[in-house]
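[audit] Reproducing an earlier prediction to check determinism. Same input, same settings, fresh worker. If the tokens differ from the archived copy the diff job will pick it up downstream; this log only records the rerun itself.
[audit] input (241 residues):
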Amino acid sequence: MDLMGFALLALSSLFAVVDPLGCIPFFSGQTAGMSYAQQRRILIKALLVSLFVLLTFTYVGSALLRTFGITIDAFRIAGGVIFFGIGLDMLQSRPRRWHTGLDQAARAAAAARSAAPAAVDEAAQMPTQDPDHDPSVTPLAIPMIAGPGSITTVMVLRADAPGLTGAIAVGVAVALILLLTGAILLAADTVLRRLGPTGMKIVEKLMGLLVTVIAVQLILNGVAPFVRGLVSGAAGAPAGH
């Protein structure tokens, strides 16, 4: 694969795995009730943490895994298992392993769309965010943006990169996707107001399906080399007498 084709592959793969649109309900839920300046500050911090994590795993991830005797295929399987659990929770509307604030975001969006006193009273009764609540590192940066899927993706891309320029292209792709994610999430409240609670639930289900599919693919990619090794080993073994 030439450099241009590899760069396009890196961009498209990272966009699909990071999924900025799928992060909107989580970002808005975690920052509901905050001012635009607070949301912007939290988003910038989340993006910087994500950039550090993804670039670290891009360039030293494989060496780190080898230090602990972990293969990239084992990392794929572990990431797939984690993603599968998260995706099932989203599809079945179960409480997730971290608080997304989706219902709170829905109520906040409904109150913002309506000026009726009843809506204002209902919004006033909503639980308010803890003043010290800072979701920038967890769950926004880790695991929403720099999660198992994106970490695995950058490590696989780095392993397949065509030379030094390819390795640089992976880092540039990470930075570009994070900038795009930031631009999309800054407009999250506008998107949520247009979608409404029902639209948000639909997005949650679709993202749950997408996350589950990604999880299955990660597990298959991790198991495939092991299965191929067993088959080739069986085929190469001498027949018994």
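[audit] rerun output stored. Observation attached for the diff report: Residues 156 and 224 are 15 Å apart (CA to CA).
[audit] end
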